[in-house]
Every structure is written in C-alpha cells, then in structure tokens.
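Aim 2, interim progress. The first record below pairs a target sequence with its structure tokens.
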Amino acid sequence: MAFRSLDGVAVAGRRVLLRADLNVPMHDGKVSDITRLERLCPTIRELSAKGARVIVLSHFDRPKGKRVRSMSLEPVATALGGVLGRKVRFAEDCIGLPAQQAVEAMSDGDVAVLENTRFYPGEEANDPGFAADLARLGDLYVNDAFSAAHRAHASTEGVAHLLPSYAGRLMQAELEALASALTTPERPVAAVVGGSKVSSKLDLLGNLVDRVNLLVIGGAMANTFLAAQGHDVGRSLQEADLHATARDILARAQAAGCEVMLPIDAVVAAALRPGVETHTVPVAKVPADQMILDVGPQTVALLQARLVGLRTLVWNGPLGAFETPPFDSSTLALAYAVAAATDTGGLRSVAGGGDTVAALRQAGVLDRLTYVSAAGGAFLEWLEGKTLPGVAALEG
C-alpha cells in the first residue's frame, strides 16, 4: 500500500496532532515499561527539531467514556519527558478550554500531552463532533500508533479525514516491515503460528496459506490439527468442534502449494506447573492421562534446519506453554535460532504479538530480529489480511 509519510512535509510553526500509543504498563502510579515511549521518541524529536508544536493524543486503559483519575495520562507525560530528556507539558483535557489554552501557550519545538481521549464516549464511538473538537487543536495530523490503528476511533481515524494526515516514523517502520514480510517478501517465506486456540486464529491461518511457502503450527492449537488427523492427544487442550475446520485448512494449504509443519514429537506432563515430571514422546504415542505442553526436541531440530533455506519469517505465538518452565524450551530455542539466522543476514525476521514479544525478551534476543512489533491486535489483524481503519486513512 502507498501511504503518506513525513518526508518533505513542512512542519515549522505548525500545530501537529500526533496520535501516539501511551497505553503503557503502570505500577504504583509510575510507568513500569518505557518501551513504547522510546519507540515514539524519533518522531517527536524529528517534529520538534523542525519547529513543530507537537501535541500528543492517546488513550489509556478503559475508562469507558468517564473521567477516571487513575487512568490519567499525567504520569505518562512525566515519564515521556524523562525519556525525551526535556520538559513535556500536560493539559488536563483533550478538548475544550484547557486543551486550547495549553496549545496556545506552546512555542515552536514544544511538546505537550493532552489528557486521555477515552475520557469521552465520542472517542470510541468515532463521533464526528468529538473528532472535529480534536482537529481544531492542530494544523496537521500524524498517526504514530499502529498498535491502535485497527480501531476506528475519533483520534485514530476520524481526525485523519479532517486534517492533512501522515504516518509517523514508527508507523512507517511498522508498515514497511509488514509489507516486506507478507506483501512483497523475499522467498521462500515461512510463518510460525502458535497459541492456544485455532478459533482465535482462523482468519490468520486462512490468509497465510495463500501467502507463505511453509506454515509451522505450534502451541496448543497444533493439538487440534493432530487430533483432526486421528492422533490421540490425551488430556491436551484442543478444540474438538474444529477438527473439520483444521482438515479444511490443511487441504487449502495443499492446494495453494503451502507446506504445513506440525509437531512430530511432544513434551507431555500430567499437569501444567513448574518442575512437574515430563516425558518426550512421538505425537502418535501421547499417554491418555498426559497433556502436550510443548513441542519436542526433534520438532525443534527440524524447524531449525528449515530456517537455513528461508529468506523471510513471520512469527506470531509461542510453540508451547512458555510462561511455565520447562515448557518454554522450544520457544526459546526457536528464538535463539531465528536471531542467529537473522544475524548472518540471510533471514528477514518479523515477529509480533504479546506472548511472542515476551518470549523474545525472555530469550534476550528482542533486538536481534529484523523487526519486532509491539502492536498486538493490530499486528494480528494485519496478518489476517484485514483493513486497518487508522492505516487506510493515511493512504494516498
């Protein structure tokens, strides 16, 4: 897709409404993870250095259209100032007189954060009146919140139609990374999809079989496919009502020339808890009283070997119940292998989704992949082939 970027845009002396994602983790009233703030900084610094008056819009948590003090963006604005190494103003509202006064007090290069847009019901309803109130505060609109781009809200979609609108540098990086992974990838291209339920990733699997050469299915969702093929998966988590759907996906993949890789061995246990006794068995010999909680070492070795010939890899979802050791083994092993293959320059690796990011962080390889998306739901919907309203509004 073609989207409008900041290249060549004159911003000096202009009020730039910057839609960011300041929905960051908090603990005891303070920001506990500044990753999203750090990723936002390049766009803010560029706009500020060029003389723009940067007015940051964002939601925080789910106040459901009401003013909730614990969901104020004020402490996040303070944290953003710390990351930027400069003063960041804060306005006690995102529209109306407090917001107008805060904007009018700004000088060229200043940065201000407006209060939580979700304090108004018009935000999530994409109310035209609320969008117009936001738009009055700016001359230009820049969306740098890909993680919120799958929501057709006033600050992500409505405002974009009322002002000249552009993608910020983080949004641009995300879109370019995803395009290189699925739209115009260097082949062969593979996708690793894990997680617990086939039902939550039907659209994803359906889209991928037409786009990739190799589809690797792991996590508990692989149990459903194994059971659909006639394997007894014991007490493993699976979706018996989706066996026909799983077989249909496999048939579609075969028709599309997409190879599907399922586990050939598994790590099983009687319960999901740390330190539990485990056994490694072929998938055809899962004990009736056991659960599959991770893919086995033979599967991991097979997957590692396949990485050698790949040029592009998309990864969404862990291979096992990685939050509970020792069932993090296969996911961590894959993370190390993907990082190593990326280091050599032979593999372009794009990963995303909360569990996947957590696993990469746990493995200590977060910075070694080509691109890691922190977008969550938006990342998944893009992989599913869906149109994201916040992105579509920037096309042209």
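The second target in this work package is listed in the same format:
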Amino acid sequence: MSAIAPAPAPGPDPAVPADEATRVRLGASRGTPGVVLQRLARDPSITVRAAVALNPATPPEADHLLIGDDDERVRVLLARKLATSMPTLDDAQQEQLSAQACQTLLLLVADEAVRVRATIAEMVKDLPNVSPDLARRLAADPAILVSAPILRFSPLLETSDLLALLADPPHSATASSIARRAFVAPEVAEAIAASTDNAAIQILLENPQAQIREATLDALIRRASAQPRWHAPLVHRPTLTPKAAHALAEIIAADLIEELSRRADLPPETVAALRQRLTTQLRGKTPEAAPQTRATAEIEAEIGWARQIEAAGGLTEDVLLKAAHEGNAPRCIALLAVAADVPAALITRACRLRHPKGLVSLVWKAGFSMRAAQSLQTLLCQISPTALLREGPGGGFPLGSDEMRWQIEFLGQPQ
C-alpha cells in the first residue's frame, strides 16, 4: 500500500449510479465530467477505480486521490498512464504536465511498492522530456528493478550524476548497469575501472561505446593476469595501441594472441612480434591445448571467488542458478566444486564425457536440488532436452544415493 493515506470515501451521491458496470463505463469515458471522475476515484470497486486510473481525461485532482489507493494494481495503472502520455505531449501540454501530472509521478516514485516505481522507470527510462529530478530519484532507488533501467538508458543522467551514483551506489548492480550505457564517458569509465567490481569492468570492456582512455586501459591490462574473463574483451577493444597489444600478449592464451595478431589497426612490426610470440607459446603444445589452458585459468579464478562467498555464507542455489542463467560455465563449475568439496577436475571430466549421471550426482553431493541439476546438464554437458535426467517422484533425484556415490567415485578414478 502507498505511504499516502487514501481520502475518506464520501457518502452516497445521486450523480453516481448504483450499477457497477455503469460506473466502470463512466470511469473509462473521456466525456465524463471531472467532478464525477473525482467521485469515482473513491469508489469502493477496484474495477471502477482502475477505469478512472486508466482514463486519459481524468483530472489531476482525481489522479492525486488515486496515489493513495489501497490497491497496488490501481497505482500501477495510474503510473503507467501518466508515464505513457509523456512522449505525445506538445510544448504547451508539457508545461502543464510539469505542474500537474509530473508532480503526481514524483509522488508515485515515493510509493512503497516496488512494482509501482518499476513501472514508472520502465516507461520513462529512455525519454528525454521527463523531469531530470524524476530520473535522478529513480536512478538512486535501492531496488534493482527500479534503478537499473534508468542507470542504463536515461539520457537525462549527466556525467556528474553517474559519478555520484558510482561513489554511493544504491545497490550492487549499479556499476554493471552504467557500464552497459550506449555511451560511457571517459571519466565514468575510469571510475568503474578503478573499482573492485570485476564483473562491471568486464561489461565495460565488452561495450564498444565505452570511452576508455589509454592510461585506464593500460592499468586494466596490468590487472588482467588474475582476471581471465577480461582477456577476450581486451583483445576486441575498438582501439588498442601497440604497447597495449604487447602487454596483453604476455598474459593471454594462444588463441587470443592469434586473434590479436589479425587486428588491422596494429603496425606490421607489432603483428610480426605477436606472431613470433604465438609460435613460441605453441612450441611443444598442440593448438587445441591453449583454449583448455584458458578455460582452466577461468575456473581457477572463479573458485577463489566461490570460496569467498562460501565463507560469507552466500553460496546458495540461487547464486548457482543465476550463473547458469547467464551461461557462465566456469562460475557454475567453481560453485559446484566448492559446494561439493571436490576438485573442479571431477566436474570438468563429467562435462567432457557428457555424463549426466555423474553431474547430477555431484549436484546431489553439493546439497543442491534437481532444479539446479537440470540447468547444469544443459549448460555444462550440452545434453538435449529430450535426454535430460529429470527429477524423480516428489521432485527428488532420479538416482539412488548408493549409485550417486559410485558415479562420483568413477569420475575420480585415474584417467
């Protein structure tokens, strides 16, 4: 319910019919007098009040009454109507809106229901003609559903606004949302790069519209040896100096050195040096070995992170499912290995063998459910939906505990 108390219901009004269907039609009609719509905004029927909330002809006084409606659904409809009307207004209407409906939207931004605030944010996220104060308040909302669309899309957030939000983030996804913007100013990119938010930095590097200064990129390359997931985005940056290319070649796997040497913007002498390094790195190895080394390094980096969240009590199934939903295979392997207290090699062997029984058994040992096991079979073992091992009766595991222990022992046998 909104923090604003609803106005008390008035007594019977002969101008308002007793039949609910008739009142709904009146509430939805553009031709209904404003004084009647004000009466209907207090109607005991939610259907009537919803019709008034959706009516573009409802006067501001009635809209203001609906801000305090007891039912969240009515407030959501009101927010959607007001936010949707903004792109169609001309200059004269815009001036009037600023004094009336925009003020109503600002009040709705304070609504305690996340759904109401998120509706406004989604509707105005990329509009240039809303109040900058409205955009800033939505951007600072502690609920990700509310602030993330504004942080990512709103053209009304200035560089100073973004820097302030990065300095005092409303939630953990603030930097990641800003890093996805269609344009990221150099100052903003530098602030993200200076943080410890490795996921946001990866998103920043993957964004070709992020304006990353040469010094900032050099600093990230120096940190990248411990962050294998940054390597490919660094190699694919739109602009890369010869100095940066040489520094990258010192830490990346052979397959990425090969990609780096094919860049058309590097001078011939840099390309020759990269190809020489590639030849040296592959000496004594098969070309297939390099990607495997890179994948192993990614898993090892994720294991360190997984151990940290386990120590903090945050290694939950929801964290695992989020990584699976994002397609982050190294993170899933690391989380499963730490939760099951087994070497990551057991899990990668099950993946390589495309062995669903072994993977399901490891999920069981980790204390997760078949819901997680089904997601991981698809992501890690690339099992088709028709071949998945599915949950047993009551949502349990389809294998017995003795068989699952045997499957884990089998995976741990010397190869």
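The CA atoms of residues 261 and 272 lie 8 Å apart. This observation will shape the mutagenesis plan for the next reporting period.
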